[in-house]
Amino acid sequence: xSLAYILETSLAGLVLGAAAWTILARNAFAASVGFVSYGxxxxxxWVLLGAIDVALTEVAIGSGLTGLLLLSAAARLxxxxxxxxxxxxxxxxxxxxxxxxxxxxxxxxxxxxLPEAAPTLAPDAxxxxxxxxxxxxxxxxxxxFRALDTxxxxxxxxxxxxxxxxxxxxxxxxxxxxxxLRLADDSVLPFFARTLPPLGVLLGIHxxxxxxxxxxxxxxxxxxxxxxxxxxMLAGLRDAPASNALWMRIGLIxxxxxxxxxxxxxxxxxxxxxxxxxDYAKPLILLIEVPMLLTIALAxxxxxxxxxxxxxxxxxxx
Amino acid sequence: xxxxxxLFTIVVVLAGAVFFLAGVVGLLxxxxxLSRVHALTKADxxxxxxxxxALLPQAGSMGTGLKLxxxxxxxxxxxxxxxxxxxxxxxxxxxxx
Lengths: 318, 97
Prior knowledge:
The structure holds two protein chains of two kinds. By secondary structure, chain A is mainly α. Chain A has helices at about 5-25, 30-50, 50-80, 90-110, 120-130, 135-145, 145-165, 190-210, 220-235, 245-270, 280-305.
């Protein structure tokens, strides 16, 4: 029994344990904490499998940002959770458990019954990679071979944000979300929010830039930028933008708009929507990724910031 | 020389692991939030620091070593901040009944 085997087995056990904890936890807050640790452990699994890009995304989006959304939802629900009673009755729970177990068993069956060499397009993708000019196959697939999926993903992100905004009552429209932590003014948070962001912004841009040839990309970089922005807003150094701020809306749609524009230019110059002329593939990909970084950072930050709060709740106190 | 460096790595990683173990035991066994935070900081600050120092000879290049040190510094900054915030919230909530 090798050391690697022990490590892999105990990691798999930890992932299963964290998953079970998340499901069995008594309240939403504990379940959210379980979900975050589950995501971090899962990222280690991806690293072991050599999928660094997936591990980065899992940490940034799956564990970090989703975890933050779940935690803030749990915090808002805390008051109502105890009043909600015992939740669904026993028959409903058994039914849900059965359905979940069936899905898991079916998935396990499908995975186990795959042929030994699973069908894959990876060799074709790697063979065609030089035409895109980027060195990271994951970025090549995301930005060139499956660019339409990536474009739609950005549109979905903006739509999700519109969904969150629409939760604000009519009278709050045009106000700011209020997410400042109400800690005393001498808390260490403002210092933290002044110290970390310069480094974090650098790291976010680096992740986007390096994504062309190494693990990384606009999504991971954008998440880091969003996190820095959120720290600044949580510390109260800057207010969240009003929901009708023009600069914010232009920034939000800049990624999909540039993507679409490049796509239509491809129609003229390379003969297909979202096709890149071979000589300009890499510059065009970078041209798309920069506004996409902005879109992702804004959309993720605003998703966490939530719908607009009551008038006058934020700002004007400093 | 490299065997000596490997030995250094093993010994110091184990020392770091002891601090992590102590931190986790404290987190599980200590009675209130403030003492739990106190126990956790040992794992974050000293435990991770020892692990990073142990890995420095194995880093291979100056850049990797500096990145390891940066990771430690960032964790120190984050955990010190979060520890202070948790302590503040715990103090406001008052001692457990």
